[in-house]
């Protein structure tokens, strides 16, 4: 199973995961924003990953576009970091450095 598929199956924003990061869970509406954004991003990333004809530069541009469409303006700093940390392994699975994209 791919990293992307594993993340799609996980409860990425459960109370336990928040507490494991040393954070109190955000409001339920923010968690819904995070969950929806994560699922949409991962599904779109899966499409990019399946396009074997793309070179690394094109993949990076497509992923950067997906990252740019995430709801950054609706999140506080800790939530932004949490979202980036959740998505980073999926981006890395495409052979890209997520920290150059975020």
Furnish the topology, listing elements before pairings.
Blueprint: H1 3-9, H2 15-20, H3 28-50, H4 56-68, H5 77-92
Helix pairs in contact: 1-3, 3-4, 3-5
How would you explain this protein's 3D organization?
The protein is mainly alpha-helical. It has one domain. The chain contains five helices and no strands. The protein has helices at residues 3-9, 15-20, 28-50, 56-68, 77-92. α1 runs antiparallel to α3. The chain is globular, with a radius of gyration of 14 Å. The mean pLDDT is 96.
Characterize the biggest β-sheet: none
Number of DSSP helical runs = 5
Task: Report strand %.
Answer: under 5%
| Low-confidence blocks of residues | none
What would you call the shape? globular
Task: Tally the beta strands.
Answer: 0
Structural class: mainly alpha
| Percent in helix | 55-70%
Average per-residue pLDDT, rounded, comes to 96
Q: For the CA atoms, what is the radius of gyration?
A: 14 Å
Overall number of structural domains:
1
Terminal residue distance? 25 Å
Q: Give the helices and strands as they follow along the chain.
A: HHHHH
């Amino acid at each position: 199973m791919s990293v992307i598929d594993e993340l799609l199956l996980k409860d990425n924003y459960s109370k336990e995961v928040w507490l494991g990061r040393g954070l109190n869970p955000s409001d339920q509406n923010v968690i819904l924003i995070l969950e929806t954004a994560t699922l949409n991003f991962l599904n779109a990333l899966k499409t990019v990953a399946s396009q074997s004809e793309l070179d690394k530069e094109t993949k990076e541009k497509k992923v950067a576009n997906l990252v740019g469409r995430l709801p950054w303006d609706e999140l506080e700093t800790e939530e932004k970091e949490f979202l980036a940390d959740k998505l980073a392994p999926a981006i890395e699975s495409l052979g890209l450095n997520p920290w150059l994209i975020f």
